[in-house]
Amino acid sequence: MAKIHELSENLTNQIAAGEVIERPASVVKELVENSLDAGATRIRVDFIDAGLKQIVVQDNGTGIARDQVDLAFTRHATSKISNEHDLFKVSTLGFRGEALASISAVSHVEIVTATENAIGIKADFSGGSKKGQEDAASQKGTKITVRDLFFNTPARLKYLRSPRTEIMKIVDIINRLSLGYPHVSFTLSNTGKVLLRTTGNGNLKQTVANVYGRHIAEKMESFEAKDSDFKITGLMSKPELTRSTRNFISILLNGRYIKNFQLNNAIMDGYASKLAARHYPIVVIAIHVDPLLVDVNVHPTKQEVRLSKEKELSRLITGAISDALLDKTEQSSGFANLENKRETLVDQLEFNLNQDVVNTTRKMPEVHEEAEKPEFLVKQEAKNSEEPKDETEHNYVDINIPREDDQYIITKTWDKNVALQQKLMPFSNKKVDQEVISTGDETLANNLPRLAYVGKIDTYLLAENDGDLYLIDQVAARRRLQFEQIYQTITSKKIVQQGLLTPIVLEFGNLDFLQIKDKIYQIKQLGIYLDEFGQNSFIVRSYPTWIHDHVEESIREILDNYLNLDKGKTQNLFKRVAALEAKRSVKGKINLSAAEGTQIITDLRKTSDPYHDADGRLILVRINQNELRKMFKKGE
């Protein structure tokens, strides 16, 4: 049996570091939280190589006294609590006294600090031990430089994600902290390039504009509420501004960013049916509560807390958001998307066939001139007049008996037709159709018969084939045709550009900016060319000609869908973009001539799906001869 022995100080420091320092973002979080606890009003964070090579955090806080620098880098040494009672009323972000000790255990750390009216001091730590100390010129505050993170624990490096992901983690940490402390000015830069800069003027909406972009901040509304235990304030997006994940919901408890499933649900309950399925709002909510009601010592990262009266807080949040929405302009319900679900053919053809619908005693209007009837109706009337129907005849039919009626499967010519079909060659060289239809669309096109244009009623085109009547929604048909045209243009990669007299500058939040920058090549395939232009901004000097109007709005909507709905999947984006632009360009019905109606019907057969538009809405409805006869009670 192995002997029990005490671990060395160096080893215990490395083990403790593993609990606190998981990645470069953990270092940034701990150092910035220390700066905030020190009363800083200006904090600057710079990092290189996703934070692995270097992280610098500088503030204008109270600084560390000369005789306390060594103590600050000792485990379980802190100025924020002094006894066990303080642990139950923690009012600071940090309190365990492990941050600096854990960071110095796995990196090279340099600290330059000074208190009010005192000479500054510079000290170096590496691998958990002090390497040197000297006087240094310094303003009040602290500057900590962390180099070569995990230099002595290289196994930790293989658990890190890609550099881009690690950068996004750092950006997210600073975003949350800046939203929790709008009165503090934050500056975040990556290898000298500024990713975030907040004013620190205490205006939360201004901070939201710095973090998420002015375009989003303009669509945020304020809300507030309080009771005997809690006070909440914040900003929430309007129901039409949503994201596909909950990552844009920031819950700040006494300035600390926390994760809480029940409070997230309370926010969603406040929006109720105003949000569509799998759509989440952008919300920043600051909760102020007595520290005695919160236990923050339940998780190493301190992002999970235990709350007293959590149900009461949830009800307060739900009510505050619901009341704020009621005070604003009435919004459409999120259930509206259920109203457009496709119904069955029976539902599409509901008619009231009660006896009172047609009153035979009604005086008929004078007929001045008989309108020209469609050919298929003239033939049907002639057939009915030549062969009067015996009203007493029963409609019971044995399907095994051959009949002349072509509505039945077995006819007298059945065997003859089968024999003829068997003699046909599998493929014929004779060109019977001049239409060009792609192979992938052949099955759908063959299922749609050749339709002859008859006329129009309001927004519907009338067509017929073999005695059957077809109703075609001209708006849905035109959108399908427009979708096919735009989608073919995008995928062909031969996109014509239209120059802008005045270039458009698009501002984004730093997270969105980084994602767009990372996927700039895929976006370029759409014909949208973005060039970096200042902090978290792109400039657009031309646009693809398939965008007809509202250029800036269209490009923003396209980029928003790419980031939040399609998760960077280019093919999904192509289809969604084509559908959005088709819907935008085809607003409603237009006055079509007979030639234009005929052309729409002809072109519809060549599309990949002639039955539905790009959003899945029905394009045409077929009413066969039997259904027409039943409507007019023929054969009864």
Notes on the protein architecture:
The protein has 3 domains: 9-196, Histidine kinase-like ATPase, C-terminal domain (Heat Shock Protein 90, 2-Layer Sandwich), CATH 3.30.565.10; 204-326, Ribosomal Protein S5, domain 2, CATH 3.30.230.10; 452-621, 2-Layer Sandwich (Ribosomal Protein S8, Chain: A, domain 1). Helices cover 33% and strands 21% of the residues. Helix 5 runs antiparallel to helix 15, helix 14 crosses helix 18 (570-585) and helix 17 runs antiparallel to helix 18 (570-585). The model is unreliable at 329-371, 389-394, 427-435 and 437-444 (pLDDT under 50). It is elongated, with a radius of gyration of 36 Å. It starts with 8 loop residues before the first helix and ends in a 5-residue tail after the last helix. The longest helix is centred in the last third of the chain and has 19 residues, at 474-492. Residues 453-592 form the MutL C-terminal dimerisation domain. GO terms for molecular function: ATP binding; ATP hydrolysis activity; ATP-dependent DNA damage sensor activity; mismatched DNA binding.
Structural class: alpha+beta
| Strand arrangement, major sheet | 5-4-3-6-2-1-7-8
Return the CATH class of the largest domain: Alpha Beta
Q: Report the mean per-residue pLDDT as an integer.
A: 80
Here the CATH topology of the largest domain equals Heat Shock Protein 90
How far apart are the termini? 98 Å
| Count of β-strands | 24
**Shape verdict:** elongated
Uncertain segments: 329-371, 389-394, 427-435, 437-444
Which superfamily, in CATH terms, is the homologous superfamily of the largest domain?
A: Histidine kinase-like ATPase, C-terminal domain
Helix content: 25-40%
**How many DSSP H or I helices?**
20
What share of the residues does DSSP label as strand, in percent? 15-25%
